[in-house]
From TrEMBL:
<keyword id="KW-0998">Cell outer membrane</keyword>
<dbReference type="Pfam" id="PF07715">
    <property type="entry name" value="Plug"/>
</dbReference>
<dbReference type="InterPro" id="IPR023997">
    <property type="entry name" value="TonB-dep_OMP_SusC/RagA_CS"/>
</dbReference>
<dbReference type="InterPro" id="IPR037066">
    <property type="entry name" value="Plug_dom_sf"/>
</dbReference>
<dbReference type="InterPro" id="IPR008969">
    <property type="entry name" value="CarboxyPept-like_regulatory"/>
</dbReference>
<dbReference type="InterPro" id="IPR012910">
    <property type="entry name" value="Plug_dom"/>
</dbReference>
<keyword id="KW-0812">Transmembrane</keyword>
<keyword id="KW-0813">Transport</keyword>
<keyword id="KW-0798">TonB box</keyword>
<dbReference type="Pfam" id="PF00593">
    <property type="entry name" value="TonB_dep_Rec_b-barrel"/>
</dbReference>
<feature type="signal peptide">
    <location>
        <begin position="1"/>
        <end position="23"/>
    </location>
</feature>
<keyword id="KW-0472">Membrane</keyword>
<protein>
    <submittedName>
        <fullName>TonB-denpendent receptor</fullName>
    </submittedName>
</protein>
<dbReference type="InterPro" id="IPR039426">
    <property type="entry name" value="TonB-dep_rcpt-like"/>
</dbReference>
<dbReference type="InterPro" id="IPR036942">
    <property type="entry name" value="Beta-barrel_TonB_sf"/>
</dbReference>
<keyword id="KW-0675">Receptor</keyword>
<keyword id="KW-0732">Signal</keyword>
Length: 1004
């Protein structure tokens, strides 16, 4: 009996074991196809939560043994959205269809302190995925978005050491940098330059105040959310991206060569001085340029994870030569991102660390080199017969630009570190608690050295050539060389704590966030010193102790800005509530309370509210039987944001300092007195934006469109008002008072006109128009005038001439100058005086007229993507229309009377030296700045199903700035659009380049 029982138990155990074995291991088979039901060879099929997986064969088929019948599959393929498949029922002959890219409506959008689906947005947000960003030798992240986002005006030169200027929906203030506020992986205020383009997954551009008000006082210029790539616990991936490129100057000014200039001077009875005419034929622009500038980038990344964690690590090396000699940029970026889950995945810890080390080798006296390269006579050689540099120090302001480069050094080194530790805890009842702690530290070391050769320039009046609106000043290089060295550190500590609530009650969905933010900044913690009189030239700026500056009469060591060191603090509370009824009616409200130490004691705190709503019309009953719209949404929002950039820790405080000298008892004694007035009532600038938007999708997503109309007004604009010294001893005070307005429309269109088995064409077009106006420039307590003339390039013979004006009722960038009226009977240029009469002797500032402005009327970006089998081609055009450029460079080169001392343009050959007015700054030199540029063309080939180790391989070639169509006669119409002096080309334009590069992307 016992044996019988034992046999029965054994049999039962074997049966149970067999059943359990079958239950734990299940064979799954199927096929992976694309949108057109074509097989996808080389697709990855993984069992979710494990590392077990296979790759589909040439017919897109796969077989995989999974742990249980209810397992999940994760299917992925390059260029297609990942698909999660839950097994149930049949385990054979599965057909899994992947779509090319994520569904636009279901796309996750990153907003302040949270995420949301695009379909339920009530605000104006534009998302750009990594594959849609600009390609090329790009060292500045701002250039990745150039032309990609409606309303985002980005301008850049060819200088790899300078960032692009970014202006969103028009200039909001006269004070700050005007650039948007960057948030990287939830960390506010990150220096965007430390993020490698290869590490970026998506960029979300928050444009209206309802979207940005959650960042309160720093959001007046818009907010850009950057999300970097994360690891996946579903699979391990190693990727290597690299390119090599060469850049050449795309255009130069058409200056006279020696033959042309000699013929011009002979015809007009002008003579070169023997000191300048050495019988040469020098192209000075060519002499300061490289024949070709090389660039390269290497990015190696590894990502993956397990059941309870994921990780991503990368290292990037970027090197880019500038087209100007001695202009170079290099950067190495290392990044680590780790996420760890604990307590049944209810707690998630995150650690992100990024360190960027950069080196900028700048052109010594860059703007002066650019000026001298066009001014120098072609009949003068670069070097004398004995090999020394040619110079004529008896000629004022006449310097050899090649010598300036060779005998000077200007370098900057930067180390940028950011660390962020996050904790996310899932609580009962739909609550989630987040704690973010971040530390940022930027260390910069800058050095300049001008050897003893530069000392010779002191006798010839060496003026610098600063970017507008700054005015040139005299520079002295001491004796036997001069050096400058400084080292500064900026640190930023942030603690942010917020509670999210996400709950659904039938047709009602509520998402809310309540949080607190604390931030402390220390800026300019360091030192600076200068020295002169070195024993030898090869010490550079590295050893100031070798100088003997005390023996140089009158030399004063420059210890830098007395206000360089600053400590500021920002404390904030914020809240946001989103309400969703049946995915049909959407409401959002936010409020942020900010307290900042930079403002007056009576106005440290500011409130920034916003409200937004949306109606998803396509969800209404009357829309259910139509097949035209798959999405139709109407949006409206209003919000207030603030501006705290452009002001330092001492803006509102009383400051005393050096106030010149006075004569006492036979000596000039240093005076000490007030240099800045206190203003305890100084408060935030506030920018209020009203936004109306319409989003639609047609023909099952084949056509999409978005339209936004906005009205943005900045009030309490901070400005440095000139006042009666009786009221304020220093004669000026920083106070609130101005008003600036921006009104515009933005249109974004997307379509897939052709989609067949082998060929797909998709296209995207964005158009934006903005109208800027200074509504008010005065303060009730400090009236003053309602206009300020500014931007004074100070070209030869142009003393006192200004180009622009800040004026109530006019836009920023309004040109205000002489109005050219052609030539009189004697061939002399004449102008309209203030009364409209003709004159050949106009007065600067008196006979001025409003003659156009620098603000563009339209910005356009048009991208086209073609895919044929394994080939892909992208072509991107960018355009700016309706803006004016003041070509001060051309005016300064239009001086026939001085053709024997400085070079002139070829198209000035018909000018007569008798025209003593030809060069005067006037409407004659205001040109149409409109242009269309073929900005980028990329052709690639994708190798698929190479082997089990190589998942994908892509080879591509990219050409940037292939051509530009414009009427502008300068080097390039893309002059500076940021700052407070937009649209001025003033002998300082770093040449743009045309680049060609070859790249490789491989994934293992």
């Amino acid at each position: 009996m016992k044996k019988t029982k034992f046999k029965l138990l054994t049999l039962f155990f074997l049966i149970a074991f067999s059943i359990n074995s079958w239950a734990q291991k299940t064979q799954v088979s199927g096929k992976v196809v694309d949108d057109q039901n074509m097989p996808l060879p080389g697709a990855n099929v993984l069992e979710a939560g494990t590392k077990k997986g296979v790759v589909t064969d040439l017919d897109g088929k796969f077989k995989l043994e999974v742990s249980n019948p209810s397992a999940g599959l994760l299917v992925s393929y390059v260029g297609f959205a990942d698909q999660n498949v839950k097994l149930s029922g049949s385990k054979t002959n599965l057909t899994i269809k992947l779509t090319s890219g994520a569904n636009n409506l279901e796309q996750v959008v990153v907003v302040g302190y949270g995420k949301g689906s695009r379909k339920n947005l009530t605000t104006s947000v534009t998302s750009v995925k990594a594959e849609d960003m600009n390609k090329g030798a790009i060292s500045d992240v701002g250039q990745l978005l150039q032309g990609k986002v409606a309303g985002l005006n980005i301008s850049s030169s060819g200088d790899p050491t300078r960032k692009a200027s970014v202006v969103m929906r028009g200039v909001s203030t006269l004070n700050s940098s005007q650039g948007p506020f960057y948030v990287v992986d939830g960390i506010p205020g990150v220096d965007i330059s430390m993020i490698s383009p290869d590490d970026i997954a998506t960029i979300d551009v928050l444009k209206d105040a309802a979207a940005t008000a959650i960042y309160g006082n720093r959001a007046a210029n818009g907010v850009i959310m950057v999300t970097t790539k994360k690891g996946s616990k579903e699979r391990t991936q190693i990727a290597y991206n690299s390119y090599f490129g060469i850049e050449n100057v795309s255009n130069q000014l058409d200056m006279m060569n020696a033959t042309q200039l000699r013929a011009f001077t002979t015809k007009n009875n002008l003579n070169f001085t023997p000191e300048n005419d050495k019988g040469a034929d020098t192209n000075w622009q060519k002499e300061v340029l490289r024949s070709g500038a090389l660039s390269s980038s290497h990015n190696l990344s590894i990502s993956g994870g397990g059941e309870k964690s994921n990780y991503s690590a990368s290292i990037t090396s970027i090197k880019r030569e500038g087209i100007l000699k001695k202009s170079d940029f290099g950067r190495v970026i290392a990044r680590l991102s780790v996420e760890q889950y604990a307590f049944d995945d209810k707690v998630k810890f995150g650690l992100n660390v990024t360190n960027s080390v950069s080196k900028y080798e700048n052109v010594p006296q860059r703007n002066t080199v650019l000026l001298q390269s066009i001014n120098h006579l072609p009949v003068s050689p670069v070097r004398n017969a004995d090999g020394t540099f040619f110079e004529n120090f008896t000629s004022t302001g006449y310097f050899n630009p090649v010598a300036l480069i060779e005998h000077g050094t200007d370098e900057t080194k930067a180390n940028n570190l950011i660390g962020n530790f996050t904790t996310e805890i899932k609580l009962p009842f739909g609550f989630t608690y987040n704690l973010n702690v971040a530390h940022q530290k930027l260390s910069t070391s800058h050095g300049e050295f001008y050897d003893s050769y530069y000392s010779q320039y002191n006798s010839a009046n060496f003026y610098n050539n600063p970017d507008p609106p700054l005015t040139k000043s005299l520079v002295n290089f001491g004796v036997n060389g001069s050096a400058l060295r400084n080292y500064y550190e900026n640190t930023n500590n942030i603690i942010e704590s917020f509670l999210n609530w996400d709950k659904e009650f039938g047709n009602h969905k509520v998402k809310a966030v309540l949080g607190y933010s604390w931030q402390e900044n220390i800026l300019g913690d360091g030192f600076q010193a200068t020295a002169t009189n070195f024993p030898v030239d090869n010490v550079g700026y590295n050893n100031l102790a070798l100088s003997n500056y005390t023996s140089v009469n009158g030399y004063v060591v420059n210890f830098g800005d007395s206000q360089a060191y600053q400590k500021t603090r920002l404390i904030s509370e914020f809240a946001r509530v989103n309400y969703n009824y049946n995915d049909k009616y959407l409401l959002q409200g936010t409020i942020r309370r900010d307290g900042g130490s930079v403002f007056g004691a009576n106005n440290r705190w500011g409130y920034f509210p916003s409200v937004g709503g949306a109606w998803r019309i396509d969800k209404e009953g009357f829309m259910q039987n139509q097949n035209i719209f798959s999405d139709l949404k109407l949006r409206a929002s209003y919000g207030v944001t603030g501006n705290s950039s452009g002001f330092n820790a001492y803006t509102a405080q009383f400051i005393s300092g050096s106030a010149g000298t006075f004569y006492y008892n036979g000596q000039q004694i240093g005076a000490y007195g007030p240099i800045q007035a206190a203003n305890p009532d100084l408060k935030w600038e506030k920018t209020a934006t009203t936004n109306l938007g319409l989003d639609l999708s047609l023909l099952k997503g084949r056509v999409t469109a978005s339209v936004d109309v906005y009205d943005k007004k900045t009030t309490d604009m901070i400005f440095n008002y000139q006042v009666n010294p009786v009221l304020v001893p220093v004669g000026s005070i920083v106070a609130n008072g101005g008003i600036m307005s921006n009104k515009g429309i933005e249109i974004a269109l997307g379509a897939t006109p052709v989609q067949t088995k082998d060929f797909t064409w998709s296209t995207n077009l964005n158009i934006a128009s903005n109208k800027n106006k200074i509504v008010k420039l005065t303060n009730p307590f400090f009236i003053g005038g309602d206009s300020i003339r500014r931007v004074q390039p100070d070209g030869a013979g142009q003393t006192g001439a200004t180009l622009q004006i800040l004026k109530e009722g006019k836009p920023l960038g309004q040109f205000f100058t002489l109005d050219y009226a052609g030539k009189n009977a004697a061939g002399v240029s004449q102008y309209y005086d203030k009364n409209g009469n003709l004159t050949t002797a106009p007065l600067n500032g008196v006979d001025y007229h409003y003659v156009g402005n620098a603000q563009p009327k339209a910005l356009i970006g048009w991208s086209n993507n073609f895919q044929y089998k394994n080939f892909d081609l992208s072509v991107f055009f960018r355009g700016v229309f309706g803006n004016k450029i003041f070509n001060a460079t051309r005016a300064d080169l239009f001086r026939p009377t001085t053709a024997m001392t400085t070079n002139i343009l070829v198209d000035a050959e018909n000018e007569s030296p008798a025209d003593f007015n030809s060069y005067r700054y006037s409407s004659r030199f205001i040109e149409d700045g409109s242009y269309i540029r073929l900005d980028n063309a990329t052709l690639g080939y994708n190798f698929k199903n190479i082997n089990k180790y190589v998942k994908s391989l892509r080879l591509y070639t990219t050409a940037n700035n292939l051509f530009v169509i414009t009427k502008y006669s300068g080097i390039d119409p893309e002059v500076e659009q940021g700052g407070t002096a937009p649209g001025v080309d003033s002998n300082n334009f770093y040449p743009k380049t045309r680049s060609f590069l070859f790249g490789l992307n491989v994934t293992f």
